[in-house]
């Protein structure tokens, strides 16, 4: 991406999770292109390294780090890494998630708990670890939720519960840390990432038909929304759940 555009994040440091692919990767590129120093993290350390190296090759400033968001200790170390790199944290993008499908009567305890741990517990761990640095910087947190938090899709009760928990949590945190840290969530609709690679073509076609803008989202569509919410352009926006779904959530199911 060209570095000629606006530089809303010059002098800012951003930590992103699950940034080795998809929405997180696109957001890392977007924030770096707008001037941020970006700590690219993922449980996939090699993937995180690749993204950081690509940003560096394009003239941006990035480091990478292995971070399993479900590990409390790894969160402590990641925040320490930011402190010793730039000394401040301005943007935290909590993006990790994947589906553990299965109707409620079929889902075992392990799948339910794994889903909540990956999508919701991890948000609590990340926020708890980063609040001291973020509040010093008057920072912003953006959490990736999902359209599943606001409409029911058969077969995803644990995912819906975890993402719905994020939506409630951003309101709570926005009030709790008002005047120090802004908290918002993006709720993507169907976005063409690895999560969709193995989706049957007929289901993909049906999803597009039910999406008013007539296409799947691109990771860059979500990155643009994350960048807005993380930037000073959104300084009057906190505690919000922004649907970025091509209108999927406001169209009929016909
Ligand atoms: N793609 C969609 O249609 C869609 C729609 C709504 C919401 N989302 C949400 O967007 C977020 C990103 O999804 P994506 O589609 O870009 O996914 P993706 O599959 O492209 O990337 C997911 C990344 O998460 C990483 N990851 C998995 N477990 C992790 C862990 N424990 N700690 C750290 N990283 C871990 C993976 O290594 C991978 O790099 C997720 O929270 C997902 O629920 C995606």
Q: How is this structure best described in words?
A:
With 254 residues, this protein is of the alpha/beta class. Helix content is 44%, strand content 14%. It contains 8 helices and 7 strands; from the N terminus they run βαβαβαβαβαβαααβ. The protein has a 7-stranded parallel β-sheet, sandwiched between helices. The longest helix has 29 residues, at 109-137. The model has no long low-confidence stretch (mean pLDDT 96). The site of nicotinamide-adenine-dinucleotide (NAD) has 29 residues, from α1 and α6. InterPro entries: NAD(P)-bd_dom_sf, Sc_DH/Rdtase_CS, SDR_DHRS6-like, SDR_fam. This is SDR family oxidoreductase. Pfam families: adh_short_C2.
Total number of domains? 1
Distance from first to last alpha carbon: 39 Å
List the ligand species. Answer: nicotinamide-adenine-dinucleotide
Overall pLDDT metric: 96
Which sheet architecture does the biggest sheet show?
7 strands, parallel
How many DSSP helices? 8
Give the helix proportion (percent range): 40-55%
Looking at the overall shape, the CATH architecture is 3-Layer(aba) Sandwich
Query: Into which percentage range does the β-strand content fall?
Result: 5-15%
Side by side, the strands of the main sheet go 3-2-1-4-5-6-7
Structural class: alpha/beta
Q: Rg to the nearest angstrom?
A: 17 Å
Compile the SSE list and pairings.
Blueprint: E1 13-16, H1 22-33, E2 37-42, H2 45-57, E3 61-66, H3 72-85, E4 91-94, H4 109-137, E5 140-144, H5 157-176, E6 182-188, H6 194-197, H7 201-209, H8 219-230, E7 241-244
Parallel strand pairs: 1-2, 1-4, 2-3, 4-5, 5-6, 6-7
Helix pairs in contact: 1-2, 1-8, 3-4, 4-5
Bound molecules: nicotinamide-adenine-dinucleotide.
Keywords: Oxidoreductase
InterPro entries: NAD(P)-bd_dom_sf, Sc_DH/Rdtase_CS, SDR_DHRS6-like, SDR_fam
Organism: Streptomyces vastus
């Amino acid at each position: 991406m060209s570095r000629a555009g606006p530089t809303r994040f010059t002098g800012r440091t951003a930590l992103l999770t699950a940034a080795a692919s998809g929405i997180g990767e696109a957001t890392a590129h977007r924030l770096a292109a707008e001037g941020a120093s970006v700590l690219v993290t993922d449980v996939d350390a090699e993937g995180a390294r690749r993204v950081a190296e690509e940003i560096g090759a394009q003239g941006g400033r990035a480091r990478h780090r292995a971070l399993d968001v479900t590990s409390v200790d790894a969160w402590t170390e990641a925040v320490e890494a930011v402190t010793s790199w730039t000394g401040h944290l301005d943007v935290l993008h909590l993006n990790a998630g994947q589906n553990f499908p299965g109707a409620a009567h079929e889902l075992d305890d392990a799948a339910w708990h794994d889903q909540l741990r990956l999508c919701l517990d991890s948000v609590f761990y990340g926020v708890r670890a980063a609040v001291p640095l973020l509040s010093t910087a008057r920072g912003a947190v953006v959490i990736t939720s999902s359209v599943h938090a606001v409409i029911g899709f058969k077969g995803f009760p644990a995912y819906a519960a975890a993402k719905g928990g994020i939506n409630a949590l951003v309101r709570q945190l926005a009030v709790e840390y008002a005047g120090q840290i802004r908290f918002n969530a993006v709720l993507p609709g169907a976005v063409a990432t690895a999560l969709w690679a193995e989706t049957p073509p007929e289901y993909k076609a049906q999803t597009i038909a039910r999406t008013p803008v007539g296409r799947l989202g691109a990771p860059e569509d979500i990155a643009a929304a994350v960048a807005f919410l993380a930037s000073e352009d959104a300084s009057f926006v906190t505690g919000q759940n922004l649907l970025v779904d091509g209108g999927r959530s406001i169209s009929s199911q016909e």
